[in-house]
User: Fold these one by one.
Assistant:
Number 1:
Amino acid sequence: MNARTDDDLAVRLRRTLADDLARGGDLRSPEWRRAVETVPREVFLGERIYRRVDTETWTRWEPLVAADLGAERWLGLAYTDESWVTQLDGRDGQAESDGPVVSEVRGTPTSSSTMPGLVVRMLEDLRVEDGHRVLEIGTGTGYSTALMCERLGAGLVTSVEVDPGVAARARDALHRAGYHPALIVGDGLAGHPAGAPYDRAVATCAVRRIPDAWLEQVRPGGLVLATLSGWLYGSALARLTVTGPGKAEGEFLPGTVSFMPARPHAAPPPGELPPREGERRDAVFGAEVLDEWTSLWIAQLAMPTATSVTVCYPDDEPPACCLVDHATGSWAWLHEVSEGRTTVRQSGPVRLWDRIEAALGAWHEAGAPEQQAFRLRVSGGEQVVFLPDAPVLRWRLPG
Ligand SMILES: C[S@@+](CC[C@H](N)C(=O)[O-])C[C@H]1O[C@@H](n2cnc3c(N)ncnc32)[C@H](O)[C@@H]1O
């Protein structure tokens, strides 16, 4: 295809993407539709993206290279409503694009172009209006930054990216697409005070708690939209209204939104496994609660400093789940001994599975409400997730 035909195809694909996102309810306003129909996502994907391939035992990443696929297939990928990983383990894969392509790679995604449907849904949920100044945390490829520039004008957009290589590529792509927002390389948890006050802050990396800096830099009445996540990988999308310096209150939005963690908030490595011993009893809840969206989130609220690993054994023994509390060194081993029956062995200063089960029990007693029923309040240096009128369902986010 020649350049002209590529451009025509990209225009058509953008329109189709916008139609699909509108049908799915993510794209709701003419302003954001215009942005989706204008911003060339292919410019932000660089030369190489990674497709997730799940095997029975692990996830691998298959590199897809623009030069090998040809323009038509590459554009097809760019305008699919999918997240495309662009960096693994903080390694600068894009810079290696002249080198040999490894046919499959294991690793942890550290940067990506978020699926357009989610980007647009969050931008709609951010309730942006003409003239608003927006702070974005997690520039990534720059695609979401470009949508904001298109909607508001680049002069009103500030975006912070922690990874210098990722930030440099986003800058290039944004400039090539004709956008010149304020691009900051650094830890977005500190915001960017020089550009404050902002009307809106939006994070495309997940945080364990809302950084104080965002609440100081967003004006009272302004909104902060961020995914609250944690070391058990429970997630919830929170929208807060700033009510004063360091004070805010808000809600959790529907849907199962998850993002890679802000680097300083990432879970610590599991470390050496503790011995499979401790006080033993039958568990009320088995490890399957950690596979369900809301119960996982409740477990994480109850034990925010715990991580979990599934341990597979070479013989016929079923896999076990091991939780370790990094604050106290306590642990819990969960073994499914027969269908529907799990035993737990706990040791250390905190009986961590007891705590998780108490929280899950109280949540069930309250009718197992969805995340949207909860609220988040920030004041006096504390961040509390609570179910209104249920004093037992109330947890402080880790400091
Ligand atoms: C999911 S990607 C962002 C996607 C992006 N909005 C897009 O449309 O391409 C998350 C990004 O957050 C960045 N990030 C992680 N921790 C950060 C931090 N503390 N401050 C700023 N950026 C951070 C990662 O390097 C990564 O590029």
Note: Residues 279-365 form a domain with the Double Stranded RNA Binding Domain fold (CATH 3.30.160).
Number 2:
Amino acid sequence: MDKPVCLINTDSDGKLCVQPAALQVLQQIQQPVVVVAVVGLYRTGKSYLMNHLAGKQTGFALGGTIESKTKGIWMWCVPHPTKTGTTLVLLDTEGLGDVEKGDSKHDTNIFCLAVLLSSTLVYNSSGTIDNRAIEELQYVTELTECIKVKSSDEDVDDSTEFVKFFPSFIWSVRDFTLERKIDGKDATEDEYLEFALKLKPGTSKKITSFNLPRECIQKFFPTRTCFTFPFPTAPEKMSTLESLSPADLSTEFLEVTKRFCKFVFDKSEVKRLKDGHTVTGRVLGNLTKMYVNTISSGAVPCLENAVIAMAQIENVAATQEGLEVYQRGMEKVKCSFPLELEQVSSEHQRLSSKATQAFMARSFKDTDGKHLKVLEVG
Ligand SMILES: Nc1nc2c(ncn2[C@@H]2O[C@H](COP(=O)(O)OP(=O)(O)O)[C@@H](O)[C@H]2O)c(=O)[nH]1
Ligand SMILES: [Mg+2]
């Protein structure tokens, strides 16, 4: 893909919908995917940072005006720069908290989709990690209502289960101008983040609401890292940032960006389903379709149901793939007719096992062998 495409959009009624052209792109990707999604307030430099991850100067459209450019979720699939045989999928989300739209349910849905689809979630904010920046991440406090782990109707608290399937978390702080000091001592970026997430003792209403988002971030995202970026360039050059060459960018900004990209490439893992099954581009497309349909129907997406639904789709396709392997092989055998019965029988054996191998490579969770049987009968 030489440029990003829109993956999720809203239709004229404001309902979320998946773009068929983006699904088609994903359908073609048989490789496992590392999915990095960025969320945060609009106009905090999210799209600009994602372009750096893609190794490109331009790509995701930047919001040069106050109106936010990115609507819904945009996607860019590029070969993973360091993990061969893997595709890096970058998801750029529309800015949260756009006053023009003023639709917090919509923002929550976009945030949930970013959590559900990614293996690394980047939360981007500007300035410092102060109380305001943490409150802007209020969506974390709603995650327990927006995502279910198990399909049972019982009202169980899934939150402790979340951590096993949630993306790892990176907080990127932009235009950071302070010195990172805690009690007068130099602090690393991670120490700075942990300090900002520290809970206050007490049970007053004020303290409880101070602690709640911090508790949620700590609980849902146990693997977390922070990067503090300085201003990218001098104020007078900021308006043309997108066209500036690296020589015009501050060396500190380039250094942090380089470390950030290296960290993402080294540490972001391949996306997996709840049962540990690797997500390929194709599965990611089906997963997106399923989650978006669930959310737009007003239901709560469930990680366990997703495994069952994905297994069903993949197993039907795997049966088809196995059959095709067998049929293609048999066509070839037919060309060399007449053959001894013995030869035909041994070719049949060979192709059957090749077909089963093709099936096994793609199928998963076919625990009772239902789909494999279909292949054998077929
Ligand atoms: N001050 C500042 N501006 C930035 C930074 N990165 C990008 N910008 C500019 O801020 C505007 C919005 O950037 P964009 O990436 O579209 O923000 P998004 O809405 O969060 O995706 C654009 O004019 C960018 O050139 C940054 O680190 N600091
Ligand atoms: Mg943007």
Note: The first strand starts at residue 5 and ends at 10.
Number 3:
Amino acid sequence: MIKSLRNQLVVALGLLVSVIGVAQGISSYQLSKTGMSALLDMRLEQVAARLRDGLAYALPKNPARGTQDDRDVVAVVWKPNDPLPFRTTDPSLHFPRDAKPGFSGVVVNDEDWRLFTRQEPTMTIQVAQRSSVRRDLTTEAATLTLWPIAVLLPLVWIAVVFVVRRSLRQLNQLGAEVRAIDMGHLQPLPTVGVPTEIAPFIHSINTMIERLATSIEKERKFIADAAHELRTPLTALQLQADNLAPHIAPGNQERFQELRKGIARSGKLIVQLLRLARADAPMNGAPLSRVDLAEVVTGAVADVLPIAIARGMDIGAEEMVSAHVRAVETDIGMAVKNLVSNAVRYTPDGGTIDLRMRRDGGMVWVDVIDDGPGIDEALLPRVFDRFFRANPDVEGSGLGLSIVKAIAARYGGDVTLKNRGDGRSGIVASIGFPVEEVKESAAEAASASA
Ligand SMILES: Nc1ncnc2c1ncn2[C@@H]1O[C@H](COP(=O)(O)OP(=O)(O)OP(=O)(O)O)[C@@H](O)[C@H]1O
Ligand SMILES: [Mg+2]
């Protein structure tokens, strides 16, 4: 059973063409044989007619023996009342003089002959040819007619493979397009220029994509709404706790502080949930600007500097590159800040954190390198999962990297997290965005007007 549609079509069309080709070959072979036979018969008749018209007298009376070729036509002329032939081109052959007029088959000297007998009032003319010679001639001619088919058949197979491949390329293309669908940005597949047979298929996929997008959007909106709704009572709770603080008996202070920490943790979780819902939301015409990535990097370092200094850490940005990204500035800021704050959070006191920028083709990357404990290789693939936390001892909601990933995807960028490959422990977290290329003259004009 052939599973591939392409192979099925190639085999079916190829076999069909082959059967037609073979049938055509057989019929032209047979037709050519019959035609050749008729031609040879005509030749015998013509020779007989010419003998009647006087050629008989031109034949030598006693042809020398052994001068006749096997392939030659043999002619015998009889005169009435004469027991021996009047003329013969081969005296060793004795054809029956009384053979029926017209064509007949006779055996002479153990050989089959095709004989044409013509009765005239003044003479009997017989013209004959060996059946084996005739067979050879007809087969030779018929075989020649098979050549074009023998040459064309393989060519037709090649053409069938080519045409079927070409026709099905559209399906392969569609498969690649479906595989490339970005779950973060569900877009309908293009329908322009699509063959009518494939169009309904694409419409079904597009309907499915639409439904999927609606359901994902509903889920996102529900999370955003829930987080938003939770924020108000939680803020009230926090206020109540703040008001209560002076009235808590010293013996209950420790438990009360735990309660406040719990409220604060829930607050942070809600804030992260809201950020994630926003990063996942469609752009919907949000105002984009030309974001200077180097500025974002120095800003992120400045933000965590007080904590880093307090913990005796060495944090710095080096190897800066001038590159701009077209985006909502707060998005890019949040993405870089999340990576930097992870580095600070998971690196022990006194550690070192380096930020570097680099260009790679059309992308600009920010690497955040720390010398903390790193992450178990087995857990690395899961760090971008929502709520996944590789190190439960340190406080966190497990949403920071999901937010970073959503922001990177939103602008056609990417984010990766790897253990350092230079023999030291620690993480290299990298985020890359497509660079906004501006023509030099435009950039100069912009800087001149600034
Ligand atoms: N630089 C790093 N070094 C070691 N582990 C890290 C580093 N960055 C991330 N991780 C691990 O990846 C997990 C997921 O990180 P993520 O930023 O998504 O969540 P979080 O930091 O726990 O919480 P949040 O960022 O939402 O406050 C973290 O819990 C931590 O275990
Ligand atoms: Mg984090």
Note: The chain has a mean pLDDT of 90.
